[in-house]
Amino acid sequence: MISGVFCRLLARETGEQVVAIDSDPLPGLAWSLGIPSDDTPLPPDLLEKANDGPANAGDSWQLRGGMSAIDAVHQYAAGGPDGVRLLQFGKRHGHVQMLAESQQAFRVIGRGLDQTEAHLVGDLPGGTRQPFFGWGDFADVLVVVAEATPSSMLSAKRLVRVRERSGARDQTIVTAANKVVDPSDSERLAEASGLPVIGAVPKDPAVGAAERAGRSVLDHAPNAPAVEAVRSLLAALQGVAR
Hints:
By secondary structure, this protein is of the alpha/beta class. Helices cover 42% and strands 18% of the residues. The strands form three sheets. The chain has a four-stranded mixed β-sheet, with helices on both faces. A three-stranded parallel β-sheet has the order 7-8-9, sandwiched between helices. A two-stranded antiparallel sheet has the order 2-3. The protein is globular and about 55 Å long.
């Protein structure tokens, strides 16, 4: 929900291309954007072997026929409200090899988009490992979304340790408190994670109602407290990114 609403508000504010990247194996981002869910992976023939030489910076694959990353987005990514494009590598429902090739294409496009003016907003896999081992490489700022519960705060703390040991590129890492029910929740999360809390999204029944309806909460209840909280998070993150 946070990623989807964030993407649409960013597109509205800037009027620029926003690409939502869904690398979470669980569904959800499409509905949060207001796009009918589609688990179709990128086609495996989208890639070809890269030519040897320094221009490829050691990458083994490139998009076929000289296609650019932004061309691939406009051809294969799903279009959504406010001009947001959704790029996803697909969920596991077919042959594992086909999904692996789709995931590689996803990474190549992500690297290519990093060299464009497009804004990339990713919904990364949950857990304490995946964000710092490939899927989050495109991001300048990583937001750990956590609740003020013992298990969630412990996961946030572990993510910080994993990031320190992973050798990931220089990235800013912050946290956002989710499903907040008390003003002290943000303080508890900051103390437990050691990260600055730059936003707090309240526990909002409008979010659950939108999910049950299969709609974006931005369409279902545009003035909901959760939407306003994501709007504030957008402003805070724009300050961090500068």
